[in-house]
């Protein structure tokens, strides 16, 4: 019975709920219950009904929560328009499903699902798609069998009544049977599960040409069902194999890796663990450019199941070592499991913990995969106790490392990886000097035959600290086991060299950067070769199968050929960009092609490359895309090709982009203003009206900036328009404003002086300038 008869509703109810939601955290459930019962409450909107019924549940009064949905929900329906009523009904039924699922009310769940099914028979004037994706339908698949199957049926019904999914009918049917198969298998209804799985396969196999079914769909279905129908591997493989036959080799190899993973799981499900592990030579090839898609979630448990403890330990260690904060959390679970086994004395398991202490984020990721431990659990030993204690206090990272170090030394006192990890940690903490770190690293890397990029980089960094960056860059490139290692090593050198260069004179800095580019070139070439070997054979280091990594390698090497050390290897760079696009296209390749065409002074190539870049960036995105940077080169190329009218297309694109970015003319960078005036110059000869319009728009800003090269370019525009006296005035003004100590200004002055002499000597001929007649 409430103490206050005033009904709280509307804004007052919302404010009340805001308050009690906060106070609930501090005062607990009984306080919340008392506050809710203090006076009548009436929710009059869908949002307030949702909040209020949840508050009643949190306070422990399920009946009151049900009453909110029934009474306030019905009042809301009665007050709603006919068009809005069905969507309100659907939302209220979803709330009911959530509540009944929380209360484990099986009969209530079935009634709510039946009501949803009936509602789907009515005309629904709203987009149904978002409701089909609600999490409650996933949650209900873990409910009792009858409820789970009914929830799958209702979800499928919601998909069928969505006209926007017309091309996905086959996928929706397959999805329904897939879910049924998984639920039936979880309830040990094996025969029915297999029947449902075969129906899912048939749904995709019989899909008509109007249905959107691709390789990803077959892989998705195979990954979901292979343990249920392991003997039907070929049914998933065949459509994929046929579809990938004409793909570029890197992409085809990636699909072969995915199919190998499916095949390995099929064999394991049939009891052939040895066969599954043999296929892992291909299945564990990584498909992520950062090393995060390597099948470890299956491979590591299989190795342990097969008794290959050392192999499993090294696999777990390298996962943590290479991937760090992006590691598979399950790795930590298995490390924990092995540390609990007194008979397992492999040093790799405490080494895993040592590496997990690389920093607090890595340790936090590692701890997230540990099994939960009750506070009353007896001691698990110093190392595991320290790990669990760090769950709520990452500041204990040093203690965790110390315990892991002690355990690793107990198991393998001279293990090279102990000294490898310890050297860097001790140096970072200031407990050893650079000479000691270098000596420890050299011994560890040699003893452990370490061929990874992180060890190579640590050794290089230590060498640079002792002997200087120039000497370090002169050292032979270390041998590394994979193309990704070469790629990562080359990339990380950039920042390190930058740090050291800050302490060098200008005379020393230039050769340091030149040496860096040389080292990077060799590293990228080695990396490219490693990946190409893997693509050619289908075998290799697990980091050498990623098509996108190969594409990035091609891009970086192409940039090196184009931009550094005066190599001018433009044709080779273009070939690399073409390979990268074939493997895994991204916008930087198209930008690189444009830059190389500009360097080659290939007018037609510039125009074509710019169009490709523009459209690719529009379709796929490119955060660094700025047509301002190449507007001048494109307009010049079109001018030389006698295609001036197409310049207007590019001008419109750039001006629209400027408007979208909300940049006013007065706020344009000098380079952007310069490009626009160059466009006006190229338009001036054959499209004088467009050139004049552009000149009038930007002349005030040119005059205000009064920058010599910009002013001189304005003279070129006026010259092209036949306004000779004005052109001469701008040329003279540019010369007057120029810096006598600036080589570019002085070079421009010579050109402007020649233009002045030409204009003063004779009247300019009609049409193009004389030097264009021979084009």
Proportion of strand residues: under 5%
SS-derived structural category: mainly alpha
Percent of residues in helical segments? Answer: over 70%
Low-confidence segments, given as residue ranges, are: 768-775
Based on CA atoms alone, the radius of gyration comes out at 35 Å
Strand tally is 2
Largest sheet: 2 strands, parallel
Backbone shape:
globular
Number of helices: 39
End-to-end CA span: 96 Å
Biggest sheet strand line-up: 1-2
Mean pLDDT: 94
Organism: Pseudomonas rubra
Protein name: Tetratricopeptide repeat-containing protein
If you had to describe this structure to a student in words, what would you say it looks like?
- Among the domains are: 94 residues; 123 residues, no CATH class.
- The longest helix is centred in the last third of the chain and has 32 residues.
- It contains 39 helices and two strands.
- It is an all-alpha fold.
- The protein has a two-stranded parallel ribbon with strand order 1-2.
- The N and C termini lie far apart (96 Å).
- This is Tetratricopeptide repeat-containing protein.
Structural features:
775 residues; two-stranded parallel ribbon; 2 strands
């Amino acid at each position: 019975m409430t103490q206050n008869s005033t009904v709280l509703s509307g804004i007052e109810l919302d404010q009340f709920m805001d308050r009690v939601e906060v106070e609930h955290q501090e005062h607990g459930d009984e306080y919340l219950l008392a506050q809710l019962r203090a006076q009548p409450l009436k929710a009059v909107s869908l949002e307030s009904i949702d909040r209020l019924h949840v508050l009643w549940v949190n306070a422990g009064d399920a009946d009151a929560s049900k009453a909110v949905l029934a009474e306030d929900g019905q009042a809301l329906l009665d007050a709603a328009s006919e068009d809005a009523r069905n969507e309100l009904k659907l939302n209220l039924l979803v709330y009911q499903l959530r509540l009944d699922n929380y209360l484990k009310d099986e009969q209530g769940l079935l009634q709510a699902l039946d009501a949803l099914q009936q509602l789907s028979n009515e005309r629904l004037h709203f987009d149904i798609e978002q409701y089909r994706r609600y999490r409650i339908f996933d949650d209900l698949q873990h409910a009792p069998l009858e409820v789970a199957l009914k929830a799958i049926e209702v979800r499928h019904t919601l998909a069928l009544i969505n006209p926007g999914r017309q091309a996905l009918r086959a996928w929706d049917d397959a999805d329904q049977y897939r879910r049924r198969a998984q639920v039936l298998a979880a309830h040990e209804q094996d025969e029915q599960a297999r029947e449902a799985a075969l129906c899912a396969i048939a749904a995709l196999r019989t899909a008509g040409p109007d249905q959107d079914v691709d390789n990803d769909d077959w892989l998705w279905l195979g990954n979901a069902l292979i343990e249920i129908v392991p003997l039907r591997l070929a049914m998933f493989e065949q459509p994929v194999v046929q579809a990938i036959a004409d793909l570029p080799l890197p992409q085809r190899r990636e699909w072969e890796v995915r199919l190998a993973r499916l095949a390995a799981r099929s064999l394991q499900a049939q009891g052939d663990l040895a066969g599954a592990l043999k296929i892992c030579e291909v299945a564990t090839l990584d498909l992520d450019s950062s090393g995060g898609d390597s099948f470890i979630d299956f491979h590591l448990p299989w190795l342990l199941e097969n008794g290959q403890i050392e192999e499993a330990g090294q696999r777990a260690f390298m996962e943590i070592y290479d991937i760090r904060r992006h590691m598979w959390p399950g790795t930590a679970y298995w490390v924990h499991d092995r540390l609990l086994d007194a008979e397992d004395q492999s040093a790799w398991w405490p080494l895993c913990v040592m590496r997990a202490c690389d920093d607090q984020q890595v340790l936090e990721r590692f701890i997230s995969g540990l099994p939960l431990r009750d506070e009353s659990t007896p001691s698990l030993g110093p190392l595991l106790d320290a790990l669990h204690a760090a769950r709520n206090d990452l500041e204990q990272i040093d203690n965790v490392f110390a315990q892991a170090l002690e355990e690793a030394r107990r198991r393998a006192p001279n293990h090279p990886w102990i000294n490898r990890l310890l050297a860097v940690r001790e140096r970072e903490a200031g407990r050893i000097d650079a000479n000691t770190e270098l000596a420890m690293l050299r011994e560890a890397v040699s003893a452990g035959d370490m061929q990874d990029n992180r060890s190579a980089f640590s050794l290089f960094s230590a060498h640079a600290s002792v002997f200087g960056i120039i000497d370090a860059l002169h050292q032979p490139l270390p041998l590394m086991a994979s193309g990704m290692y070469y790629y990562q090593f080359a990339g990380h050198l950039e920042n390190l060299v930058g740090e050291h260069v800050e302490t060098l004179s200008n005379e020393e800095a230039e050769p340091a950067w030149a040496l860096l580019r040389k080292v990077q070139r060799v590293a990228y070439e080695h990396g490219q070769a490693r990946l190409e070997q893997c693509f050619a054979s289908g075998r290799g280091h697990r980091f050498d199968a990623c098509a996108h990594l190969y594409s990035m390698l091609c891009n970086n090497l192409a940039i090196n050929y184009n931009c550094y050390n005066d190599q001018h290897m433009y044709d080779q760079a273009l070939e690399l960009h073409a390979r990268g696009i074939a493997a895994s296209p991204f916008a930087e390749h198209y930008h690189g092609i444009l830059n190389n065409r500009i360097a080659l002074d290939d007018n037609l190539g510039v125009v074509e490359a710019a169009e490709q870049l523009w459209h690719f960036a529009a379709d796929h995105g490119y955060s660094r895309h700025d047509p301002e940077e190449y507007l001048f080169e494109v307009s010049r190329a079109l001018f030389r090709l006698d295609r001036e009218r197409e310049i207007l297309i590019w001008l419109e694109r750039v001006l629209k982009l400027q408007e979208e970015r909300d940049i006013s003319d007065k706020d344009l960078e000098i380079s952007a203003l310069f490009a626009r005036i160059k466009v006006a110059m190229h338009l001036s000869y054959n499209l004088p009206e467009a050139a004049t319009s552009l000149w009038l728009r930007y002349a005030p800003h040119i005059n205000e900036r009064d920058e010599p090269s910009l002013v001189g370019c304005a003279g070129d525009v006026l010259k092209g328009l036949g306004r000779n006296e004005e052109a001469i005035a701008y040329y003279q003004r540019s010369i007057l404003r120029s810096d006598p100590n600036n080589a570019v200004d002085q070079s421009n002055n010579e050109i402007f002086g020649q233009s002045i002499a030409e204009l003063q000597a004779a009247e300019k001929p009609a049409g193009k300038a004389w030097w264009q007649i021979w084009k």
